[in-house]
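COURSE: Structural Biology Practicum
ASSIGNMENT: Worksheet 4, Part C
STUDENT ID: 0417
INSTRUCTIONS: Below are two proteins. For each, the amino acid sequence is given first, followed by its structure token string. Answer the questions at the end about the second protein only.

PROTEIN I
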Amino acid sequence: MEERIRQRRALYTVLREWLDENNLLEALQVFEDQFQGQPTIAVNDYLTRIAPLYRDQVDAKTLRRNLMQLLVRKSAQLEPDPLPLLQQLRARKESVALEKKGAQPTAEQLALHTLVSTMMRKLPLLQRKQLHAAIAVQLKQHFVNGSYDALARYLLTDNPLHLALFDDRSLRQFFNLIYVAACEVLGPVIADRWFGGCIAQLRETDQVAGDAVNRYL
């Protein structure tokens, strides 16, 4: 795992000098899907595969030399792990795929989305990141495979289309896991105040949506 992260960071550090953000993430996705964990000798095959992304800016020989130099450096000299950027890219692609399939959330699911989205925006950025990490741990314990992925992508994209994949029971469990994670990150007293305040605000500003979320509480 550490070597995989090191390779990904080295690629990100080198390629970001030559590629724009979209092409950079596409190049890293190719690495994740087909080359991660392979010996360094596979660098030639990888650079050949992504050549259409960089061909006009730099040659493969230069990229390979720079990459090999970085792979022997200390981790502190590399850019941070771009995995969060890749996760966001996958989530955006999943959202587009859902739109093409015509997935549509119900009025109740949209109400839940409004509540969850509002709750997240009320938290400072650092606490929001901590809460997302705690929620991810809870999701891994209670949801599997595609269900976990869809809910994780929902939190990444803030796109209610992902909620259309779930029934009421699953979404009640999802909302409860947010509360459990909030108690861990914020403490039970602040978590209760945060939940109660956001629910009360929703009921005041949109009574229909406020009534609709009752099925998930």
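PROTEIN II
(use this one for the questions)
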Amino acid sequence: MPLEQTDLVSLNRLGERIQTALSVVMSHLPMQAKSIAGLSAFLTYNRSNSQRILNAFRSKDGLQVLTQLPGIAGQQEFADKVSEHIPKPALVELNQVFSLFCQALNQYARSHAELKRLLNEPLQKEITDPSEQDKREALFSASKSLLGSHINTLFCCYVLTPNKHKPQFLHEFAMISKLGMMRSPASPPFVQFYTHEHPDNFDKPELIDKTSRLDATQFHIGIAKEYSTPQLESYYSSYSHSNSGLVFEDITNQSFDATFLFSNPDELANPLVDATHCSSTSISIKTPTKKMLMMVLLDKQIDRRSTVNVGCYMGNQKVKEGKLRASDLWTERLPEFPELSIIDLAAPNRHTVAGINAKQMCDYLLNYAGLDGNQFRCYLIEIDYPIWSSTYRIYFEHDLV
């Protein structure tokens, strides 16, 4: 029988846990053991199984991990061979996840081959269960009522490219646009959060328009005039050092738009020159939201050596960029699987996404940054009623070994 969606959620989580355990193991092995031939020679371990272990380690998601692993006997032999080269806690965890795999195999299939077949069967594109959609809308309505605020459409676009001035870093440019936002007088102030430490001389966000050009050597945050309610800057109140956010007050009982541009030149390591495991972008749903569009434009130089993953996670756990793989957050992942698309914004039928002129807004950001859109691959997720108080994250995991 085909696997149910709940089975796939459980198996994906197991695969991510196994991948995390393998990542710890690989971190303790010498560089020469991080290729198929090198791992086989270092451990005197079967070459085919060495390939399977490395494929599982590099897999894009938990389900792929389970299809790439060697069989039960190969897993046990790997644990035995590696035992003298890794710390005891890493070995205990490796044996535990292999034992859990064995239990899952007994539960879902008669053999590893059958489990692979079940996981590789094309899944029919699911039509959202009306009851599930109703639950999401109910959560939106309840949280909107509780907080006294909501957003009609959240559009965010991130651009990742090597920094010409600091080659050890990626330069991240971002547009965060909150369209049709409403606040009641009782709701918390509107705060635009971000992660980068602000310069000491910061006074207020700059006002940006289509003629503005960026000083690419410094961190910047500004209000995009063409996509924001007139005089939005006049509602700016203060900068909150405790949570890195711009505070806006007294915008109540009216619908307004607030769009911000960010230039972050020195927070993400450049995987072309640095041994970083991954780069990621994320958006946290701090205000109840009807529709979310999240786009990432990744420089094609980096895209060629990366695999992409997407997930929805509890809260907004701080991730040390470049150190964690998506699978390392398996304990935080929610059973929400956003669909990731690759789109060509140059195609006329893709200019508008969910009523938003995405190409126009991306071009505005690229123009501000002085970049050519042809050098990027564009990824998109589109979500109705994104889960309040969760974080949606797109990872690019880099092939290092």
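ANSWER KEY EXCERPT:
Q1: The radius of gyration is 23 Å.
Q2: The first helix runs from residue 5 to 27.
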